[in-house]
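Sample intake sheet
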Amino acid sequence: MDTSLYRAAMEGNTEILNQNKNLLENQLTPNNNTVLHVAAQFGHIQSVMEILNMCPSMYRKVNSQGDTSLHIAAREGHSTIVRALIEYANALDEELENGVGTAKDMMRMSNEVKDTALHEAVRNHHPIAVQLLTQEDPEFCHPANNAEETPLYVAAERGYVGLVFVILETCTVPAYGGPGGRTALHSAVIHNLEGCTRKLLQWKPALSKEADAYGWTPLHYAARFGYVLRARDLLNADKSVAYIADKDDKKTALHLAASQGHVRVIEELTSHCMDCWEIVDGRGQNMLHIAVKYGKKGAIKFILQNFPLSSLINQKDVDGNTPLHLLAASDCYEAGLVKHPKADMMAFNNDSLTPLDVVCSNKSVEPWGFTKRNFTNAGANLGRRDVFSRDKDEIVTKERHHVLENVLPIDIRRSADTHLIVAALITTATFAAGFTVPGGYDARQGLDHGTAILARKAAFKAFVITDFMAMIFSTTVMLIYFVVAGASDRDKFLRHYASAYYLIVIAVGAMVLAFITGMYAVLAHSLGLAIALCVIGCLSFPVNYFLLRKA
């Protein structure tokens, strides 16, 4: 394109455009943009009108991406130009005797990726342009582009709630689909948009039951992400959606909520559909099976407290496993399930194994997790069915398992090294603190020469005791690892590892207490500051306990 013409279109210089009106028709940029495209891009309404007067047919011309000048104006949000192009096309309609709907035809034109002008206006969040385009052609459904996106879906996905309202209130039959078979309601729920979700449900309640390519309804996504209010909106629209299962695993929203441990969603689902807890997935697993399989302790506790356990706790899946079997095979311990009086400890799965059999055969379970003791204390027994074949299998695989059982996981070795470093640091710090006591030593000549100045204070005595405890426990940890350094017995090492873990925790706690009491002893003259430091220090214990429980 001629530089002077491009600059004139870019800056809105209508005088230069008029001087070169014979050249306008054939002037193109490398992307095949006309001067009308350029004027629309930079928002010069007078240039646009002047160009249309000189070259009436230019409004339909497209660039190399298939964009018309309306696409460009809608993308940039130049609503005055969008309005001008629509009015110009309507004026052409009136001039034609039989009217061919020029304006609507222009607005329905799509580019190379099948985006209409409305796609562009919605994607770039230009509300006025969206309103102009939808009001001019309310009967058009605005179909999906090559990416399977409709304008309504794009608005919902990007959280443009106002644009969703405009489209729904203006268009009579707007398309609402998106990629992967999702609808605009799927997207609104996924992004937890309250107003958008409720507006879509008000517009078309049946959307709540439409599933995507995976068979997931919007309720599945609400359950997956734990959006209890969105789940409530969907259930209020149609509670039967709670019974819809997905395609592959036949899981309902309740199963997904259990797998993620979203207790409030489970409560919401079962309050609307009291019998939906009976549904099992494609593997015959109920919600308790699934909560156990994914180690969701909060969900397990809630289920144990609120549902008929005779139908859940002993129900078997396609492999014959009860929730207890799955619990025994995992590294998650929930005492309420193991010790529950309705739990059948002698239930056999399809491999003729009881939960205790599963525990004993699970070589990956660590000593502080599921041990034989956890189940035997709850009254569990070995099944002892199929003894002969098990003995034969044990003989065949004994040598291979012997090697595997004595190989320590790399993460355990690294953790043991960390224990040793921490123990050494605690020993060093507490040993030094024992001889550089708070308050110092009495330098005066006499019977008390060389003794601790604060020795008679209770806080100082507490400091000495806790400092000594921290040093003893940390040195014990160092001794434990020294003893088992060359051990070849995996189980023996793991037992000592568990002991060292708890001793390290105690040593750290004792060291913190030593610091608190030492500070209190030297700050006794400033009681307010001393108490404040004690309170802050003591707050570390519940925080550390919470972190250890989560670990």
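Comment: Residues 243 and 539 are 46 Å apart (CA to CA). Confidence is low (pLDDT under 50) at residues 366-370, 392-407.
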